[in-house]
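Q: How would the structure tokens look for this protein?
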Amino acid sequence: MTSILSRRRLLLTGAGIGAVTGLGVSRAAAQAPQAPCRVAVSAGINTGTYRFHIGDIRATIISDGTIAGNIRIYARDAEQAELDAVLGAAHLSQSQFPLQLNAMLLEQGSRRILIDPGANLAMGPNGGRLISRLADLGLAPGDIEAIVITHTHPDHVGNLRNQDGTAAFPKAGVYVPEPDWQFFYINEPDLSHLPMPRDFQERFIRNIKISLEAVAGNVIRYQPGREVLPGIMTVPAHGHTPGMSALLIASGGDQLMVTADLAYHPLLNIDQGWMPGVDIDGEAARQTRNRLFDRAAADNLLLFGFHFPFPGLGRLYRTGSGYRWLPQAWDFTG
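A: Here is the predicted structure in token form.
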């Protein structure tokens, strides 16, 4: 027993690891002071990509970064005492509640499709990582053939535009819901009812317009409820915006529902069931959320949340009074 413990202790020390040369251990190393083993961590080790499959489709979740905002943007009807208790137990901030920006890449044979490419810097300094993470996957913007937009808020369309105003994905057809195109791009939207300062509302609208302007020549407008590309069906999800669509992606016997902004965070809008504060039509959004969540729970659909903790995959199950979120177990096989 003593010899086993001694060998184990040697292997766990910096001296034991650092001094092994060839088949032996030097006398200097054996006499060196023992120190705890330290593993160097690369600055880029958290790459922000996660790969899985939907039937024959290879899917990759790509983090464009994060955004953060006041909690009332994401849970407008929460009672303050209950909100304090829930956030306190989860060690989360009310003033700068964090959300992810989870884009999705689909690869169907040689076709590459992006779903909601993310914010770039339209919503703060912590976005804008999509292009570099595509490069890490060996892809350039010109490799993207199509982009499907669930709705045209700036955190979902900001990456359509380069900083110089040109299209970031020059060869991609961009599928945009017709009602959102009309409401946000063609017309001047009234967002005065939203819980945001007026200057923020103005920047919000401007970022939508300049992002869509950059790709206007490549936009294909769709009516929610239609298949936009083989295996990608849009599902009407009116309420958050006039034309927001969930997506149902199917291949073989597998299905994935892209929930867009039906919910911002599982803790707030699923487990607690609080209402987001930036829905244009709150009652319509509530009905849409219940309808699609009921379907997801009944059919045991795998869901993907754009703002959910990375990589944003999981399932819903019904409770007596609502729903619960169960994150998908991490798959190391890709």
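Residues 1-42 have pLDDT under 50 and may be disordered.

The chain has two domains: 2-31, 49-327.

Upvote if useful.
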